[in-house]
């Protein structure tokens, strides 16, 4: 076991020496289930021909009556795997892949448990216990260390299995249910329980090779989740969680109870757009371009982005606007920029969209789809970009009777992922929520969008000339006329004008609050006056809470990073991207600008304008619906009385 910084290496020889024990486990062993109930028959042969299996014995001895007296079932995973296709007597490539992956995962798990025992002192206690010389005062510590080793063994086995099977997955899916047989007496028993339950899941959910891989991977995910949950309150785990453990030949890094994932890119087939092809939407385009470069500052060794540490990184944003104003074009532009930057640097880029087809009628499935989407995008081994288009149709408002159970599940998952107790922003990914009707999005979920991109499309005469020319193409000879083509899309001038427009509020309701505060206290030129303005906004709209203030201050910090990383830093990775974390931080810090009062006022107005816009629309829609309902009632009453008379 070699050590480098806070990363320890599991040597290949330390893993391979466990191959024989791992293969023996796959070949067969007996296990008596303690927690889970058997759902499929074991493959164990009769112990002796002609001798029938006896009935289950129920003890009448006091104290033993509550113990499980289930007969130990033979677990033969190799036979189970090969039985997935009974018509073919030969082992298929996928069956062999699963067998090798399980043997490797078991060997890594046993090596990890052994390494933990060495660094935690458990190995010494095991030797003392074997020799009968274990001090009675240390038996409690011994029991806790054994339980910790069992959790580590189970999680690492599941983690390595899911990781090794990831490249071999297909469209096939398996709903295997929760992992139950997680035993924490010691590491060998934990692996016995896991393999017994895996055998059960394969018997029920693996009718063919494709579902064989899907069922094994799905069970590994469930076992990881259960072990990580148990580990939250388990003692003696510091020796394992304080460092990361590296398996070099598999390119696998074990970071405590976090799932590892293959750092592979998704294949993108979308039509990318260049920035000049996004007409109008100046602030949204500017922030999307800057965010694309911010993501590239992520340091894969430190697993942190300097922008996330300094402040100014946009983890979640919401783009809203009328239909046809360019939300899809903005997504295509941003995905294209990140894709090109990652290809140039050799980084893995993962783009994924969560759409309405991910809402499932099966209870719990929509939530699982949402969680899988989040996990794929936040994978610290890739640069990730996740989009949720038409989020008002996908995530339901809490308490809305028209929202399906699946939509409610999705809302809960997104709220926890975007600003929950366990949310960690590393700066390697960002999530964009887009909607034509943001007023229909749950208030708490909408406020988890740290930045607001108003996608308002073309606005000026120049914008409309540009978009007409762009969409007409080149198959014509119509002269351009007196116009500087795409000159209005020159980003710095357009953005400066757009930000200045927010020196005063845009929405009538907020403008009234701003005017009243301005008359009372004058110019907003210090923190006390700015705080007074914020309180006045809160009095006008009770949804303007502490989270709104956090989003505003985050947006101000983004403005403090009001610079674009130079294009040459993206084009030549050696100049920035491939430098160490501290050097990148210093280079970024040199470009920072000081925060001004104008920045703060503009960001307060931008954010509050969006909230007032959403609230006004939401209230107006509710009023219109009530008016329509009252009209229907009156008409129904009139027809009823006419028919009666």
TrEMBL record:
<keyword id="KW-0067">ATP-binding</keyword>
<feature type="domain" description="ATPase AAA-type core">
    <location>
        <begin position="321"/>
        <end position="454"/>
    </location>
</feature>
<dbReference type="InterPro" id="IPR027417">
    <property type="entry name" value="P-loop_NTPase"/>
</dbReference>
<dbReference type="InterPro" id="IPR003959">
    <property type="entry name" value="ATPase_AAA_core"/>
</dbReference>
<dbReference type="GO" id="GO:0005524">
    <property type="term" value="F:ATP binding"/>
</dbReference>
<dbReference type="Pfam" id="PF00004">
    <property type="entry name" value="AAA"/>
</dbReference>
<feature type="region of interest" description="Disordered">
    <location>
        <begin position="35"/>
        <end position="59"/>
    </location>
</feature>
<keyword id="KW-0547">Nucleotide-binding</keyword>
<protein>
    <submittedName>
        <fullName>ATP-binding protein</fullName>
    </submittedName>
</protein>
């Amino acid at each position: 076991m070699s050590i480098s910084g806070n990363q320890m290496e599991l040597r290949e020889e330390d893993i391979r020496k466990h191959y024989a024990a791992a293969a023996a486990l796959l070949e067969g062993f007996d296990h008596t289930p303690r927690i889970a109930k058997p759902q499929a028959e074991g493959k164990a042969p009769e112990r002796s021909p002609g001798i029938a299996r006896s009935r289950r014995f129920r003890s009448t001895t006091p104290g033993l009556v509550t113990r499980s007296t289930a007969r130990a079932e033979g677990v033969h995973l190799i036979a189970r795997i090969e039985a997935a296709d009974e018509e073919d007597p030969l082992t298929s490539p996928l069956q062999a892949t699963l067998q090798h992956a399980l043997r490797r995962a078991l060997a890594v798990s046993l090596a990890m448990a052994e390494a933990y025992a060495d660094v935690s002192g458990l190995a010494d206690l095991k030797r003392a216990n074997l020799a009968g010389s274990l001090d009675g005062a240390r038996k409690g510590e011994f029991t806790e260390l054994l339980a910790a080793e069992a959790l580590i063994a189970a999680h690492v086995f599941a983690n390595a299995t899911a990781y090794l099977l990831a490249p071999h997955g297909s469209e096939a899916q398996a709903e295997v249910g929760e992992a139950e047989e997680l035993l924490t007496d010691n590491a060998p028993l934990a692996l016995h329980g896991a393999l017994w339950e895996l055998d059960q899941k394969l018997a029920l959910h693996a009718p063919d090779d494709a579902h064989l891989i899907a069922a094994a991977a799905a069970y590994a995910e469930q076992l990881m989740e259960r072990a990580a949950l148990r580990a939250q309150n388990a003692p003696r785990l510091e020796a394992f969680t304080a460092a990361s453990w590296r398996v070099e030949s598999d390119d696998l890094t074990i970071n405590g109870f976090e799932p590892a994932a293959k750092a592979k890119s998704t294949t993108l087939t979308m039509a990318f757009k260049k920035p000049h092809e996004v007409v109008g939407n100046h602030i949204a385009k500017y922030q999307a371009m800057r965010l694309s470069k911010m993501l590239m500052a992520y340091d894969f060794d430190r697993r942190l982005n300097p922008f996330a540490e300094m402040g100014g990184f946009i983890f979640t944003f919401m783009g809203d606007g009328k239909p046809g104003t360019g939300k899809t074009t903005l997504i295509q532009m941003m995905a294209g920029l990140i894709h090109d930057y990652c290809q140039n640097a050799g980084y893995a880029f993962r783009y994924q969209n969560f759409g309405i087809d991910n809402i499932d009628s099966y209870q719990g499935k929509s939530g699982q789809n949402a969680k899988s989407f989040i996990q794929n995008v936040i994978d610290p081994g890739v640069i990730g970009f996740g989009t949720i288009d038409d989020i008002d149709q996908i995530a339901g408002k809490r308490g809305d009777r028209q929202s399906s159970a699946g939509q409610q599940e999705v809302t809960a998952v997104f709220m926890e992922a975007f600003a929950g107790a366990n949310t960690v922003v590393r700066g390697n990914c960002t999530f964009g929520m887009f909607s034509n009707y943001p007023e229909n999005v749950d208030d708490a979920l909408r406020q988890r969008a740290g930045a607001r991109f108003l996608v308002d499309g073309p606005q000026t005469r120049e914008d409309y000339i540009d978009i007409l020319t762009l969409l007409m193409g080149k198959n014509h000879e119509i002269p351009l006329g007196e116009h500087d083509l795409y000159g209005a899309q020159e980003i710095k001038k357009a953005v400066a004008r757009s930000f200045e427009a927010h020196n005063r509020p845009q929405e009538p309701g907020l403008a009234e609050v701003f005017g009243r505060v301005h008359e009372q206290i004058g110019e907003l030129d210090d923190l006390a006056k700015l705080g007074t303005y914020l309180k006045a906004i809160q009095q006008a709209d009770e949804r303007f809470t502490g989270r709104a203030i956090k989003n505003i201050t985050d947006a101000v910090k983004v403005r403090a990073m009001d610079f674009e990383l130079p294009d040459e830093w993206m084009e030549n990775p050696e100049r920035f991207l491939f430098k160490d974390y501290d050097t990148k931080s210093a280079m970024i810090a040199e470009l920072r600008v000081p925060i001004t009062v104008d920045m703060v006022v503009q960001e307060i107005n931008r954010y509050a304008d969006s909230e007032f816009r959403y609230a006004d629309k939401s209230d107006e829609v509710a009023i219109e619906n009530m008016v329509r309902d009252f009209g229907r009632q009156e008409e129904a009453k009139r027809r009823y009385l006419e028919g009666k008379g």
